């Protein structure tokens, strides 16, 4: 992003909180080393004495600390490469009671199907991600407020209880369908 949009140099930092998991495995250690090396190269290229474009924290944070980071962030970028619940996106919205901040979601994130006021990106398309980051950084407080209000409403309405109820209803519908198919098959065989 800093290459395509140099106006954000010195004004934008990406904070990545990576809670260590499975760090005893060689593959994870190699991946962490690769990420640290890439962050160092970007910081060397675009950073300065008092500016780091990438701040990488590989450590556990308490819930209170994570909420404080959500509230301090201008943007939450979730670049999942496959479907999932993506609770980070929902936690970010829930924490933003000031109704500010911009959520950017991968189109592959499960939450992208619910959180329509997020800015949606293809994480494999780096120029699109860079353009969307720049757009989010320049977004007016009014547009942020309108989008965040809607996002927070969705998070409030479609909570874990509604999700569980939907799962139970889907299971009941599936059982009913199986019973109907079984009865039809019985009738077909009896005929």
What labels describe this entry?
three-stranded parallel beta sheet, mainly alpha, 53% helix, two-stranded parallel ribbon, 5 strands, 191 residues, elongated
In short:
By secondary structure, the chain is mostly helical.
Question: If you had to describe this structure to a student in words, what would you say it looks like?
Answer:
The protein has 191 residues and is mainly alpha-helical. Helices cover 53% and strands 10% of the residues. It has helices at residues 26-46, 63-72, 87-95, 126-138, 141-157, 160-190, and strands at residues 14-17, 54-57, 75-78, 102-106, 119-121. A three-stranded parallel sheet has the order 3-4-5, sandwiched between helices. Strands 1-2 form a two-stranded parallel ribbon. Helix 2 packs across helix 3. The longest helix is centred in the last third of the chain and has 31 residues, at 160-190. The protein is elongated and about 85 Å long. The model has no long low-confidence stretch (mean pLDDT 91).
